[in-house]
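seq as requested:
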Amino acid sequence: MGRTSVHALSDAIADEYRAVLQRFSRFRNSAAGFLTKLAVQENVLLIPSPSAVRAVPDDPDDDTFLACAVAAEADWIIS
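struct tokens:
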């Protein structure tokens, strides 16, 4: 029963990851390389500019992840 997963990644999510990694000095120099490697993985679906979604009033930053999931027709969201 070998299931595979596909991970959706948008430009906005990559920007969010970059910003978070930049907050930690030990990751500052490797953030760009990590994101480049992540984007070319076989199981990563790039969604460059998904349509905006406004669904999380308490944390609008989460709308970025929801928009990507909707565009990718995701079954699950893990953040």
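Strands lie at 7-10, 44-47.
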